[in-house]
Amino acid sequence: MTFIQSFPDVHFDFGAINELGRELDARGISKPIIITDNGLVKCGVLQQVLDALPSEQDYAVFSEIPENPTIQGVEKALKVFQSEDCDGIVGIGGGSVLDSGKALRVITHQSGSLLSFLDHSLEINKSVAPYITVPTTAGTGAEITFGGGIHPTENAIGMGLRSPYIKPDLAICDPELTFTLPSHLTAATGMDALGHCIEGYVSNVSNPPIEAITLDGINRVINYIKRAVADGSDREARYNMLMAGLEGGMAIYLGLGPIHALANTFGNSPLHHGTLVTVSTPAVLRFYEGVIDDKLNNIRSAMNLSEGDNLADTITDLNRIIGMPSSVREMGYDKDDVDVMTSETFNSHFNAWAPKKPTQEECHQLVIDTLG
Q1: CA-to-CA dists, residue 127 to 105, 106, 108, 130, 165, angstroms
Q2: Quick check: 95 and 80 in contact, CB under 8 A?
Q3: Which architecture does CATH list for 183-371?
Q4: Alpha-carbon gap, residue 161 to 145, rounded angstroms
Q5: Residue 260 CA to its chain's centroid (Å)
C-alpha cells in the first residue's frame, strides 16, 4: 500500500533567508540557539544569516558542531541552550549540523541521555523544541527528513534517530548561502544527493509522486554538478543543485539501501559521508543489474544516457571528472577486518528497503569492490 507522507514547509529561492525573522516570530520563538560549524563562521555564511534577522532579534550561537555529528557536540549545544534560556533551534549548515539539531530538539525537552534515544527512536515523544533548518550544502537532504545519524564518538559507526517528531518544522533553502561551499564539498554533497535519489527510486516502497521527484533530482545533479564544482558563483547551477538536494531529502522518505549500508560501515572514521556514498554507488548498481532493469533504464534516461549504457561506469567517470575518489582506500580508510565490515553491511537497517537484500556473501563482495 502506498503511504504518502507530508514534508515540512519550505521557503526556496534566492533571498529566502529573509523569511527567517518572520518565521521565528510566527512560531513564538523569542530566542533561538543558532547552531552551526566553525567553517561557516569563517566563510561568512553565519553572518549572512544574522544580517537577515531583525535588529531586535535575540539569539545565542553555538558554532562547534563537528564535521560528523557526535553526542559530545550535541551535549555542548544543550548546555548553551539551557544557560541562554533559548526556546527554539535554528540549524545552519550541512548534514552534521542539521542532524545535530534533530537530536538537540529531543534532549532539550525530554528526560534521558541522548544515547538512550539513539537506535531507540520509539522512546521519542512529541515534546520537542521548535526547529528551523537552513541548509548550506546541496546534498544531504537533512533539512526536511525525519531521520538522522549521530556518532557516539568521532570514529564510531553512527547510530540512528528516526521519528516523525524530529522532522524539522520548516526549511529555508537559499541557494546564495551555498556560494562559498568549496568545490570538493560541492562535489561530495551533490553526489550524496544523487545517491539518495537513486536509492529512493529503486526502493521496495511504492510512492509514484516521490518516485517522479527522485528522477527529477537525478537529472538536476547530472546536468548541473559539473558546473557548480567548476564555478561556485554559477547561480543557475547552485539553484538546481540545492533543489536536487531537497529532492534527495524527499527520496529518503522512500528508504535507502545497500549504498548507505556501505557508507555507514565505513563511517567508523572521520571520512566524509557524501564521498563514502558516491564511492559505494557503482558496486551496488552492478549488484542490481538483471534485478531491476526497468528502473535502471529509467535512471539511465534521467541521466541522459541510452538504454544499455553502463550506469556504474558512468558514476565512476563522473566522480573522476569532479575530483571524487574511486574507492574507500583512496579516501584513506585504513581498517582491514573485512569480515567485520561485511557483518556491519549485512546487518544494516538500510537494507530493509533494498529491492534485493544482499546476502552475507554478496555483502562481502560489495565491501571488497568498494574498498578498492
Answers
A1: 9, 7, 9, 10, 8
A2: no
A3: Up-down Bundle (1.20)
A4: 11
A5: 11
Antiparallel, parallel or unpaired: β 60-62 and 88-93: unpaired
- Quick check: helix, strand or coil at residue 162? strand
The torsion angles phi and psi of 116, rounded to 5 degrees, stand at: -70, -15
**32 beta partners:** 88
C-beta separation of 157 from 344 below 8 A: yes
- Please state, as a whole number, how many other Cβ atoms lie within 10 Å of the Cβ of residue 336: 8
- Amino acid, single-letter form, for residue 94: G
Q: Cell for 276?
A: 563514502
Domain ranges of the chain: 9-178, 183-371
pLDDT of residue 354: 96
115 neighbors 59 (Cβ within 8 angstroms) = no
Query: CA-CA distances (angstroms) from residue 125 to 106, 117, 151, 355?
Result: 8, 11, 21, 31
Query: Alpha carbon of 18 to those of 26, 34, 49, 95, 234: distances in Å?
Result: 14, 16, 8, 22, 21
The x, y and z cell numbers of residue 335, run together, are: 581498517
Q: Is 370 exposed, middle or buried (0-12, 13-18, 19+ CB in 10 A)?
A: buried
* Size of the chain, expressed as the number of residues it contains: 372
Which cell goes with 282? 557503482
3-class SS at 60?
Answer: strand
Rounded-to-integer distance, Cα 299 and Cα 172, Å = 29
Q: What is the pLDDT of residues 144-180, one digit of tens each?
A: 999 888 888 777 777 788 899 999 999 999 999 999 9
From the candidate CATH numbers 2.30.110.10, 3.40.50.1970, 1.20.120.230, 2.60.40.10, the one assigned to the domain spanning 9-178: 3.40.50.1970
Residue 321: the pLDDT is 97
For 32, the grid coordinates are 533561538
Question: Which helix (DSSP H) or strand (DSSP E) does residue 240 occupy?
Answer: helix 235-252
| pLDDT recorded at residue 84 | 97
Rounded average pLDDT per 10-residue block, the chain, 372 residues: 85 98 97 96 96 96 92 94 97 95 94 84 90 95 92 78 93 97 95 97 95 98 98 97 97 95 88 92 96 96 93 96 94 90 94 96 96 89
